[in-house]
Amino acid sequence: MALVGLPFVAAQTAQQPAAPEQPIPFSHRQHAGTLQLKCATCHKNPDPGERMGLATAAMCMQCHSDVKTDSPAIQKLASFANEKREIKWARVYEIPSFVMFSHRSHLATGSACADCHGQVKERERLHREGDISMKGCVNCHQAKGASVDCTYCHDKMN
């Protein structure tokens, strides 16, 4: 399959961007690593299943109403929850609008979050480390025997 002439997302493995500053500090190492929380505990997958949600203040407060309540970060989190304010998390990954992608279908076929997002449970602060470029996706599809037909992930090009 020739990939020449198609729009590409620049490969994200050449130079890793720094971890973005988040409005509330969050340690994936602590939550997903030490405490062994599953990704889906904080990242819900509402219908139709394309996107994974980001944690809400109310979600965090299910545990933090009793845990680390003296922490300024948790007090800030509690304020967000009490005021029903959205936490404006800085996105680490963004799938281009011209790509049809479903987290749900990838999870249903046995893919793991770490396949694209890296070893999140080992990270204090997340940065983009998984290769979600077209080349990275095609390589994964080939390795797993999934379709690499253009229209599998893209609308028909005119």
Provide structural commentary.
The protein has 8 helices and no strands. Helix 3 (57-64) packs across helix 4. The chain is an all-alpha fold. The chain has helices spanning 28-34, 39-42, 57-64, 72-82, 103-108, 113-117, 134-144, 150-153. The model is unreliable at 1-14 (pLDDT under 50). Helix content is 35%, strand content 0%. The protein has a domain at 28-54 and 89-153.
What shape does the CA trace take? elongated
DSSP strand count? 0
- How many helix segments? 8
Alpha-carbon Rg, integer: 18 Å
Features:
single chain, 158 residues, mainly alpha, 0% strand
List the helices and strands and how they pair.
Elements: H1 28-34, H2 39-42, H3 57-64, H4 72-82, H5 103-108, H6 113-117, H7 134-144, H8 150-153
Brief digest:
With 158 residues, the protein is an all-alpha fold. It has helices spanning 28-34, 39-42, 57-64, 72-82, 103-108, 113-117, 134-144, 150-153.
